[in-house]
Every structure is written in structure tokens, then in C-alpha cells.
Amino acid sequence: MSSVKKLDPKTEATFACVQKARNSTLLMLELQKAALVVSKQYAKLVESELALVTALNNIGQQQGGDIGDGYQKVADVINTEAGKQAVLARSLQEEIALYIGRTEKGDRMEIDQFESDYKKVRGAVKAQIDKAEQQTKKAGKKGAAALQQSIQDLNDKIKEGENIKSDRLKHVVVIDRKKNCTLLGNFYTLMTHDNALHNEASAKIGSLLDPLKALAGAQATIPDKIQELVTDAQRTFVAVQADDNYNDSYSEDLNTYSPRLGASSSQSSPPPPPFASYSSTTDHSYSNENSFGTVVALYSYDGQQDGDLPFYEGDYIELTAEDDGSGWMSGTCNGRSGVFPSSYVQMDTDDRCEQSPTNDVDLLRLESLTCALDKFVGARALKNGRPLILAAPD
To answer: SH3 domain: from which residue to which, for each copy (predicted)?
Structure first.
């Protein structure tokens, strides 16, 4: 049989707690090392995320409009995430790793001191109990009263020893728990910050999903400011809208030298360019004091803008203002008044025969129109791959 005396339960539990506390300090050092590694990784992640935020903001500022706003909202969400990672990195370093570094040595010294004190107290209590037992044995020879007193003293020593053991057991448990509870409290603070930042980032992400989805599907959408410029350009450079196709047959009016559109065919061609620019201050009136003459529509014009004059191919338009170099005229047709492209019409032949030009400006204007139409007809013929054949003069 072993000669080692078995310890009482309280003493055994106390030494087990001492060993547990001593082992936990070693585990704490491992936790400290791991926390520092993760903290450094979070710090590197934050650095990368902030670089991404800067790049997104730069693109957003360069793009502007709804696209730029989308980039900047994404950057804001990532910046929030970076802030959360920064809090985790700082908390892991300060509240966990540094805390363990500050307290580990003190905890180890405290448990070592407790174990040393406990052994001394335990030895002193044991010596007192042993002494009381010896006195009890001797008191039996001195009579019943002496024996009774000696037994009472022995019981008091034993009870005092048990109280000391209980106090020391509770004390060692508190030493170990105090360290761990404080550390868990630090983790609680870390998780509280992390949860708040997570909720903030989650809310931002939730509010950003629908706008990002809408932008992803709006590839053909033109911003309002650009649309205004496009609309203005469409008004200035309006497209030809013909009711029917037409051919390349032209005839010449020897009196006015103005090509006229012939019969319809399967080929279509663009309208001639606007009249050549001339001074709007020059007097270009005809003999009719109340009218600038009549023009006939070469092509249909739908007049999509307010103030435009719509008409169909072949309509006659009474002019109220001639082309001042802008490429636009104004007149009345079918009971409506408005402006229209001068390249869509030509002077009515009969009207122009009656109203001969009264000054050199009108002659220059007619020559400019003739030259423009000649170029248009020649380009049209070359495009179709056949020579231009003008009708013989009457």
C-alpha cells in the first residue's frame, strides 16, 4: 500500500484550482499571440479597404451624376466596413493582447503567492490540531472535566482549520475567475462595437441594393443635362421624315435654275444642306410687300418641338420670314404658323417667276441654293453608283 496520505476534498480542490490557474496563464499567452496576429491582419485589411474607398471616390467624382453617386455610395459602405475592421484591430490589440500582457505576470505571481501562503496556513492548522489531539490524550488521565475541555479545544481547532480551507478554496477560485471574467468583459466591449458597426453597415448595404440594381439596368439612360443638349442638337440637325420614297429624277427650270424633285421611286436620299449664310440685316424683300413668297415642301416635317410648323411633302407654305443664315424659316401652312428647316423646301416655281429678284443678295441666295442642290444631286448619283442624268431643258 502507498504511504502517501490522501488529501481531504477541500484541500484537493484547492490545489486543483491552483494548478488550473497556473495552466490558464499559459493558455492566455497563446491567446495573446493569436489576438496580435488577427489584429495585424485586420489592420492590413483596413489599409486595403481605405485604398479601395479612395479609388471609388475618385471615380465617382470624375463620373458625376447618378453614376458618380453610385460609386460614392459603394465607397461609403466599404468605408463603414473598414471602420468596423479598425475597431476590431484596435480592440484585439489593446483590450485582449495588451491586457493579457499587463496582467499575465501579476496573475502568475498571485497564484504562486497563494499556493505558498496556503501551504503555510495549512501546515500551521495541522500542527495546532495535532497538538490538540496530544493534549486530549493526556487529559484523560486528569479526570472527566479536563478531558471534556481538551475535546472541546480539539474540535475548535478542527473547525478553524476547515474554515481556513474553505476560505482559501474560494479565494483561489476568485483569483482565476476574476482574470477570465475581466477578459470576457473586454470581449463583450469588442463585440458591442462590432455589432453596432455591423448593423450600420448592414443598413447602408440594404439601402444601396435597389439603387445599384437600378443603375445596373440603366445603361442606355441619358442624364438630364446631356438629354437637354441632345434634344437641342436634334432640333438644330433634324432628320428627314419623308412620307414616301422618291427617285433621283430631276428637271431644270431654265428661268430659276432650281432642281425639282421628280416622281417617287424605291430610293430615298437626305435633304439638301441649308441655304448659305447671309446677313440678316440685308434687305431681301420681294415686290410683294406683305409676303416673302411661297415655298413648296420637298419632304415631310413632323415638327416635334414647340413652335415648329409641321407639313407634308408637296404642301405650299406662305413665308413670313426667310432664312437668316441659321438654316430655318418661318411661315404658315394648313392654318398653323411656326418655324421649319429651309433645306426641306424650295421656292414655288410659279411664284418665283412672278417675283423676280430685286437685288444682288437675292441672286446670291439663289445661286447658293442652286450650288447646294447640285452638290446634293451629284453626291446622290455617285452613292448609287450611276451617272447623273438631268432632264433636258424644255
So the answer is: 290-350
